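Retry 2 of 3 after timeout on previous attempt. Resubmitting structure tokens to design endpoint.
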């Protein structure tokens, strides 16, 4: 009887340990991303979601903040920011190249006061 209880305790301990490890892989982050409109929102969220390991991404047009949930074993905040720069959106740490930025639609331009309302 003692062996059965011991085995059950060991199994329960392993189960809880595995569950804790699963949870520790998930990170949540919020950071500012430059953009202007709903087209920017769609582009920013798509770039974030297509980054391997990102589970959830939503960008707020008003606050300019991107909220992400991601697996920190598969990606990092830096990789997410690089993906955003690759589609033309700046963060404080990583800027999009002028070449990529210039390909954005006119309503999406946000640098140097050149934001155009439509």
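Retry 2 succeeded. Sequence:
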């Amino acid at each position: 009887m003692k062996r059965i209880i011991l085995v059950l305790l060991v199994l329960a301990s392993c189960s809880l340990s595995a569950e804790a490890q699963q949870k520790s892989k998930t990170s949540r982050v919020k950071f500012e991303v430059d953009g202007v409109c709903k087209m920017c929102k769609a582009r920013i969220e798509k770039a974030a979601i297509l980054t391997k390991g990102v589970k959830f991404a939503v960008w707020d047009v008003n606050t300019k903040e991107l909220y992400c949930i991601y697996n920190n074993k598969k990606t990092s905040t830096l990789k997410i920011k690089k993906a955003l720069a690759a589609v033309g959106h700046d963060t404080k740490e990583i800027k999009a190249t002028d070449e990529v930025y210039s390909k954005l639609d006119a309503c999406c331009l946000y640098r140097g006061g050149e934001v155009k309302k439509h």
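Attempt log closed. Helices lie at 2-24, 38-49, 77-86, 98-101.
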